[in-house]
Amino acid sequence: MVKPWDGESKVGGIGLMGAPLSKPSISLSGASQSPSVIRQMFSSLSTYAIEEEKDLENERITDFGDVEMHLTNIPESHNRIYETFTHVMKEQPEMVPVILGGDHSISYPSIKAFAENKERVGIIQFDAHHDLRNREDGGTGNGTPFRALIEEGVIRGDQLIQIGIRNFSNSRPYHEYGKEQGVTVFTMKDVREQGMTELLQKSITQLKSKVDVIYISLDMDVLDQAFAPGCPAIGPGGMTSDDLLEGIRMLAKEPMVQGMDIVEIDPTVDFRNMTTKLAAYVILTFMVNRG
Amino acid sequence: MVKPWDGESKVGGIGLMGAPLSKPSISLSGASQSPSVIRQMFSSLSTYAIEEEKDLENERITDFGDVEMHLTNIPESHNRIYETFTHVMKEQPEMVPVILGGDHSISYPSIKAFAENKERVGIIQFDAHHDLRNREDGGTGNGTPFRALIEEGVIRGDQLIQIGIRNFSNSRPYHEYGKEQGVTVFTMKDVREQGMTELLQKSITQLKSKVDVIYISLDMDVLDQAFAPGCPAIGPGGMTSDDLLEGIRMLAKEPMVQGMDIVEIDPTVDFRNMTTKLAAYVILTFMVNRG
Amino acid sequence: MVKPWDGESKVGGIGLMGAPLSKPSISLSGASQSPSVIRQMFSSLSTYAIEEEKDLENERITDFGDVEMHLTNIPESHNRIYETFTHVMKEQPEMVPVILGGDHSISYPSIKAFAENKERVGIIQFDAHHDLRNREDGGTGNGTPFRALIEEGVIRGDQLIQIGIRNFSNSRPYHEYGKEQGVTVFTMKDVREQGMTELLQKSITQLKSKVDVIYISLDMDVLDQAFAPGCPAIGPGGMTSDDLLEGIRMLAKEPMVQGMDIVEIDPTVDFRNMTTKLAAYVILTFMVNRG
Amino acid sequence: MVKPWDGESKVGGIGLMGAPLSKPSISLSGASQSPSVIRQMFSSLSTYAIEEEKDLENERITDFGDVEMHLTNIPESHNRIYETFTHVMKEQPEMVPVILGGDHSISYPSIKAFAENKERVGIIQFDAHHDLRNREDGGTGNGTPFRALIEEGVIRGDQLIQIGIRNFSNSRPYHEYGKEQGVTVFTMKDVREQGMTELLQKSITQLKSKVDVIYISLDMDVLDQAFAPGCPAIGPGGMTSDDLLEGIRMLAKEPMVQGMDIVEIDPTVDFRNMTTKLAAYVILTFMVNRG
Amino acid sequence: MVKPWDGESKVGGIGLMGAPLSKPSISLSGASQSPSVIRQMFSSLSTYAIEEEKDLENERITDFGDVEMHLTNIPESHNRIYETFTHVMKEQPEMVPVILGGDHSISYPSIKAFAENKERVGIIQFDAHHDLRNREDGGTGNGTPFRALIEEGVIRGDQLIQIGIRNFSNSRPYHEYGKEQGVTVFTMKDVREQGMTELLQKSITQLKSKVDVIYISLDMDVLDQAFAPGCPAIGPGGMTSDDLLEGIRMLAKEPMVQGMDIVEIDPTVDFRNMTTKLAAYVILTFMVNRG
Amino acid sequence: MVKPWDGESKVGGIGLMGAPLSKPSISLSGASQSPSVIRQMFSSLSTYAIEEEKDLENERITDFGDVEMHLTNIPESHNRIYETFTHVMKEQPEMVPVILGGDHSISYPSIKAFAENKERVGIIQFDAHHDLRNREDGGTGNGTPFRALIEEGVIRGDQLIQIGIRNFSNSRPYHEYGKEQGVTVFTMKDVREQGMTELLQKSITQLKSKVDVIYISLDMDVLDQAFAPGCPAIGPGGMTSDDLLEGIRMLAKEPMVQGMDIVEIDPTVDFRNMTTKLAAYVILTFMVNRG
Ligand SMILES: [Ca+2]
Ligand SMILES: [Ca+2]
Ligand SMILES: [Ca+2]
Ligand SMILES: [Ca+2]
Ligand SMILES: [Ca+2]
Ligand SMILES: [Ca+2]
Ligand SMILES: [Ca+2]
Ligand SMILES: [Ca+2]
Ligand SMILES: [Ca+2]
Ligand SMILES: [Ca+2]
Ligand SMILES: [Ca+2]
Ligand SMILES: [Ca+2]
């Protein structure tokens, strides 16, 4: 289903791009191995969506491969992600990029590249964490990407909607920073009480007035540990995979949604590739509900 | 609770029969070890169902042991399953056979033996997959049992109801083959939207006009990977164990249901025997709701 | 968030006390390692509850450390738990003790110590099992604590409410013993059909007329195996972690609730500390809903 | 090869007796599961010793089963071992008992029972550790059996020879206690420099003047961690399995050797049952070189 | 270092051929995954042999890929191995085939194909087991390949030398069958007492008078479990990897040695690919000592 | 045995310093966790060396803690190691530093700091690999430390002796670079044929004429994979732990030896902490043979 880019064609559907970087992570992370494992998982899935009676056979995913990382220069690695993705997205204006992290730090250069090629960008971030830490202490790590995007002026705070933020997983100052910046935050309590569909309807309505395109940043640790056992920062109190898939089906149908990344899966600690399997399933669910 | 057959008695309740065969599986599978591990799991469970305040103490399960498999002749192994089960079921007309696989290939000889001893047989198959692949390429493997039953005339397509069929887990041609043959298919979308109870009511109503007895073929991979981590083909998007148990409670109460198999658990890749524990729990749930 | 007791202060909030004992367990159990692992899990959690927008920073947990166990004299170990906790609770009348087991046998000396310092004590026990076995055969093991409390006159049977009792996990005689003694039993069927909130409202109403304070005894195996993979006696058919957290939020708001223990987690068989993470999350959820 | 005792016969060869007790261990130990796992390992071995061209088919091992342990009373469990083994050994004067631990604490009641039925007993203990700790602190644990035997007058210190004692694994006071009591100690340096055969020749010569029979107490942690990965107290600097088997072959040929125990294997932490496999191999090696 | 065959060239050095078949194994075996894992291991090794100061850069290994197996027809799978290898070896008379199993059953069709293209073939089999079981019971499994070769007249018994045969791992009748047939057997005792070099000198001398070429059949379970933890039939009492590599260096220098297989590694139970790493190391050691 | 530095005292014996950095590693490595795990391993070892009958009780190890690493700036992390160690070594001229990596990249700043405080430094490097890669491609990674030391003029090539270099683990150009620079290389073949003692005698003799002090850089992957299963780059063909300990005992007695590092252990992939246990054992073996 996934085929390598031939080096020439203009791509109409999904373009897969790997950012195999997890050295910026606060705790030891093998998320750099995710792009290759997610690709393997595709090979164990079929193209046929029986629920929608739709076959993706003729809409295969084009794979642009991985950006090569520098061994010891992390800012250079981030820069290579930015440069490469900027170039590919410019060459492929019709393509919907789906970026495979890596840890969440890769969303900073990825979204920066995405924004360069689009008008105003709105972000729907699924995450247990704000990822709004300051960058003075440790540079651009996996706790800072959205802070970096705001501070560098790539987005304004009110272009960012965070869904699934969880208790005991964030410090108050970052929540307050988000509020000051106008970030919309839906906690897990909101998910439990209002449901995914309602939250996303609100989110899309709100973004429509402010942005031209929407980018989904999916940190898999938004899921409860029972459903995503392979994230570095697993924990209880998160959403089910059914909640997430319900959200993906809805977002796929929204034409403003034009890009996505999936981050924070460490295949070396996963159980039987459950979490990368789910990531591949999310991408196919997006595709089948797209057209 | 489980006691070996004494070699003579007529058995009234459940008769356990093991088919420890998984060499026909497409991917490496230790499902051949399931019968012995499921038996161990029984020994860690009690006979008392507090929810129903009913004790199964006096309705113990009779264990007919395992069919001995041939080391290198797989068709011969299938044949031994067929011959043995035909013999036992003939000798034990009152018994409700519960067959422990093995991979799903064992359902072909098992149901063939079951049908030989009954009138028309309806099948309710819980599965993420159709298992309707053609047999030209690889013989009777774990992807073909229901194709084989239809092609060999054991059942007609409209005697088969498949529940829990999943996206990206099946090829379109097999869905189409099923439709041509009159197979009823309820996808996971149907399960999510209509609920197990409603689907099963429809299923039983539909079968009642066509068959005399119903056989449940339970491929544990119908469950979401979070609830059945030990199936060879785990994946996301499946049902919960609560969904399944709700279904089992309902089917147990239907007198037409006269047989069952439980297949596709590989204890060598399971986590702490979760999946075989659930299989044993399913059997006891069936028993307690039976009488 | 957790700080050791300074040896002097009167403690107002939660006082953590470890009872690292699991030699009384029927099957091999490393639950003795839970207190230290749960403490480690706290260090990976923040104090901020975004759902309630409340920071626990100034209500940190006071840690009284672990009771030292005897190497080979189990009754002496139980006695040390009783003596130590009696002493601490007497010195700290305002403190809400949260006791980290160990296996469930530690609830006997723990609740006995708790009761000594309070008027009449009601117990809400979350558990798949009654734990009402007789003590003639094996002394005070992890299957007997509530039998021991009743037989020793620490509580009457009608002061005990059991929630989450499960099929095929208990023998009938212990259910009958419970009924004779006036124990209230809510099975998993009750949880599924009535919901946690309703069951707990009934429970509190019922206890209010009989007791002065309520103690929660939380055996983590009340959870389904998918949500608490690290309990010695995992199994299917249990509650979700959402069910449990809903219950904890409600109980925390009830001022009569004055103590708690969390038992039966074996970190040596857990998957990525999921179960101890959940235990720490339960304690923080209790705290944040308390005040 | 191993057959259960028929309840009557006088046994000529090896009599297997299980002491499934590891609650006295200082660190968490599943050594209680060793007897059953070692028995399983026998079933994967044949009776034929090609090196000696000798078949053990007609000298099968008689299995007296396991002593049943008390759930919470450890001294009672030790006592049951002592009582049961005393009884069996008295009834079976020709039998060579091979006792399967359990942790090393079981050697105290086992050797006491052995000594009761024999004249003066010499012990050749293979171990990384002296096991001469005092019993004031924790009773009879797995660090005290030889202290207990000396203090209770079962043996004098000069009847004990320790082989394989290792650096950084023992406290000086216990070495000194051993010297005061006349215990002979061969360290791993002695093993490396003199070789197993020479050490054992010295040992036997020395014991011959003092005792009537010799008992081998084999703590598997005498082996280097690469060869016995399943011992609770694994470490580097130990002997190879070849060293040990060389010693066993030699000791088997010595008619004074009349009993043995094998202790301190925890199958729950082993790698692919390597250590229990080696234990079974040791017993067969003993048998084949015996007669 | 390993490059796929271009479909045309005549190959001078080593030709790699995979036989990914382990369904004929007596116990569950994932040895079918070995060919692909051994290939991965090559990619983590360099071409440079510093001990010999020789670079294999220009003598790369040609990879003919894997024979495709039938899903359920095991004799057909064996036949495909035979047909394919016969064809390749005929086309490539200069090539030294190195065959990657698979279980040991694949040596029967492999050596039959090898023999077809050569004059008289001598076999040096490294193995803990004779593999001389009869085929009446289970057909050509992984315990029968050398019996099959003798019975089918591919070799006479005196063309077979077995090295490393181990105690308690073989039944006497198969040893006797071997002796009757003139098979030369060197047990582990011979390896320990005479050393690998001496045994191999004897072996080569003996074969020289009887055969034209020598084929090495390397069952990795000839190694002690500490050195080959990933074999299905691991056990103690085997040789070290140093012993084996010493043997390989010697055999590589013997021009009569013209083929080899490496079998019985199950990567799914190995520890960190130790055993497949060693297999790749063996092949390179063979190459570097060859020229 | 290990006590934290009091912030004032002059240290006479061993000073432990942690460099928890493994982000410069070519493959994913958790070697950053080694310092803390090695410290835990000390706590399970005693101070008494029975082989030498010497107690280290009064020569405890002083622990200077870990250097704090930067989250995303690897050169800054290396610089912090250099600055911190330079400072500590200057303040503690009598101390023998023992540095716990981390990956081998930390030896560059560590040895640079060591050299700054000493006259000419000789290095005895135990390693399977040269670690002489160029730094153009990836900066100072774990394959370059000795190249960096030579290129930066910290040592000349003839001040470096490499022991245990292995086949198929190095590229020829780096061997040639080493020869050009006058590096002495002893391969595993040299170790097998000449023995550790002889190689080290040659090494010390050779260094004596050129340097004032000797520093041991111990990459644990010099050991065979059977003895050090927790190194990132495990493989066959290496030395035994006995070989290594023999070398350490000899080097400890040489007064010129004044510093050491131990690197390349990844506790997250080790088996039961075998490799960190061995590291702690190496340090104690060094100490006991020192004085
Ligand atoms: Ca994130
Ligand atoms: Ca996150
Ligand atoms: Ca199926
Ligand atoms: Ca299926
Ligand atoms: Ca309980
Ligand atoms: Ca329980
Ligand atoms: Ca011992
Ligand atoms: Ca010991
Ligand atoms: Ca073989
Ligand atoms: Ca073999
Ligand atoms: Ca290195
Ligand atoms: Ca290295």
Automatic annotation (TrEMBL), chains A, B, C, D, E, F:
It holds the Pfam family Arginase. Coiled coil: none annotated. InterPro entries: HutG (IPR005923), Ureohydrolase (IPR006035), Ureohydrolase_dom_sf (IPR023696), Ureohydrolase_Mn_BS (IPR020855). GO terms for molecular function: formimidoylglutamase activity. It is an enzyme of class 3 (hydrolase). Its EC number is 3.5.3.8. The keyword rRNA processing does not apply. Keywords: Histidine metabolism, Hydrolase, Manganese, Metal-binding. This is Formimidoylglutamase. It comes from Pseudalkalibacillus berkeleyi. The gene is hutG.
